[in-house]
Write a structure and sequence with these properties.
Length: 178
């Protein structure tokens, strides 16, 4: 039995790699439509979104290897993978990759059991948030709202209303005179 894994409701950017001890014939009947075998129960998860998990044979990666796939496909820093590289690339059979998003922001404790065995957990490499000044002076001092109308626009509106009132007044005089 593998140790417990605590998932916080604020967790994001964690990628977990599991070895799956099933033969291809045992895995073949399972897919996204029918639930990818009882994966949720094997992980001991309360919530699990299949859109954020991958189950595949390691051999499908050919020469790329699992370590490089995690670097390039999941944004894991090469330094973080360095000490696990040989073990990851030595895996055979099927692997399961579970991203934090698979737990839907639900705090839970996983208790993985056979046929799953946790190999490693990695953090996606994310660039830090930067609040650099805007490059264009044209964007400074504006909030994105509409500017107030110009004096010429206001004069045009007043003239239009005055003409409308005069038209109505003439129409009333013509109607009364007829």
């Amino acid at each position: 039995m593998t140790d417990r894994i605590t998932i916080k409701n604020t967790e994001h950017g964690v990628v977990r790699v599991f070895d799956v001890d099933l033969t291809p014939e045992e895995i073949k009947p399972f897919n996204r439509r029918n639930g990818i075998w009882p994966l949720q129960q094997a992980l001991g998860a309360d919530t699990l979104d299949p859109d954020h998990i991958e189950l595949f044979p390691v051999e499908d990666l050919d020469e790329l290897g699992l370590a490089r796939y995690l670097e390039e496909g999941h944004g894991i820093d090469a330094d973080e993978i360095a000490e696990m590289r040989q073990r990851l690339d030595g895996l055979s059979g099927h692997v399961l990759i579970v991203k934090s998003r698979a737990f839907g922001g639900t705090a839970q404790t996983l208790e993985p059991r056979a046929p799953l065995r946790l190999i490693a957990s990695f953090n996606e490499d994310r660039a830090p948030v930067s609040f650099d000044p805007l490059p264009s002076e044209g964007a400074r001092g504006t909030t994105g709202g509409k500017p107030p109308p110009s004096p010429a626009a206001m004069s045009g509106r007043v003239a239009s209303i005055a003409l409308l009132v005069l038209f109505l007044l003439v129409a009333v005089v013509v109607w009364v005179a007829s």
